[in-house]
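lol forgot to send this yesterday, sorry. struct tokens for the thing we talked abt
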């Protein structure tokens, strides 16, 4: 009879995978991941049938964690700029506070390894926010730019802001605010 899988081991494997993907990209070896997770290399494949499955699950887990951080308190802000600013602040703060996860997610995001099913599964919390932002009471202001353009500007300005904060942590609040102001001007038509 097979032993039940341990959630702690699964979490350790995902955490180690995030570290090595952030450091070495998608070519990170499962032997390094296993050693960092303190499991035998074969144990990884008890939890994830293939390395691609591991990377897809890591992508979904990281996107969901980021989405949860961004969604926390989202509906507490009524006006559209306030909602966007809350999302921006949460994204920046999560990214700065989770540099390894952010770098791993950046590698995974551009990978051809991530399946359409995984990308769709990762959209859960993000899609709820997008619907509220683009189809809610202030939708006309949000529609001054397409969703695709808005997402691209958000991502580009957020990455720039995160890099600046990494170089000068004492300016975290200033850079976060200025980054949001730039994003809002670029996408809202204000």
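and heres what i got for the seq, position by position
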């Amino acid at each position: 009879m097979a032993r039940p899988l341990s959630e702690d081991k699964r979490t350790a494997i995902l955490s180690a995978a995030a570290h090595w993907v952030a450091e070495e990209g998608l070519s990170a070896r499962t032997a390094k991941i296993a050693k960092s997770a303190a499991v035998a290399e074969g144990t990884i494949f008890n939890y994830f049938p293939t390395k691609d499955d591991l990377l897809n699950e890591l992508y979904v887990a990281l996107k969901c964690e980021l989405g949860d951080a961004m969604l926390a308190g989202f509906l507490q802000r009524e006006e559209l700029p306030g909602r966007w600013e809350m999302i921006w602040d949460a994204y920046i703060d999560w990214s700065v506070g989770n540099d390894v996860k952010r770098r791993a997610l950046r590698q995974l995001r551009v990978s051809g390894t991530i399946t359409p099913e995984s990308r769709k599964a990762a959209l859960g919390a993000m899609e709820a926010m997008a619907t509220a932002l683009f189809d809610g009471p202030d939708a006309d202001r949000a529609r001054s730019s397409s969703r695709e353009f808005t997402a691209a500007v958000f991502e580009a300005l957020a990455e720039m802001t995160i890099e600046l904060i990494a170089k000068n942590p004492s300016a975290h609040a200033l850079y976060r605010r200025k980054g949001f102001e730039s994003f809002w001007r670029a996408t809202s038509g204000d």
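The mean pLDDT is 89. anyway ping me if u want another try
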